[in-house]
Amino acid sequence: MTITTLSSREFNQDVSRAKRAAEQGPVFITDRGKPAHVLLTFEEYQRLTKQRRNIADALAMPGVEDIEFEPPRVRIEIRSADLS
């Protein structure tokens, strides 16, 4: 893993370079010489935070309204309890 450090100015002038560097490891972006931000690939971010998509997140994704889904209806009947 390679750690790259860029100033805010360098980052603004060459975002593509920062994105390429993030493929090799984190990119620290400094502001007036002090670390201010970290650029990671999305996969690395998910690995670090151990994020897993849950059903609520999946249903909130754009385009999900275009998916046709008709689940079968389930019929639940009430029955008397046999306490014998």
Automatic annotation (TrEMBL):
It holds the Pfam family PhdYeFM_antitox. It comes from the Bacteria. NCBIfam families: phd_fam (TIGR01552). Antitoxin component of a type II toxin-antitoxin (TA) system. Belongs to the phD/YefM antitoxin family. This is Antitoxin.
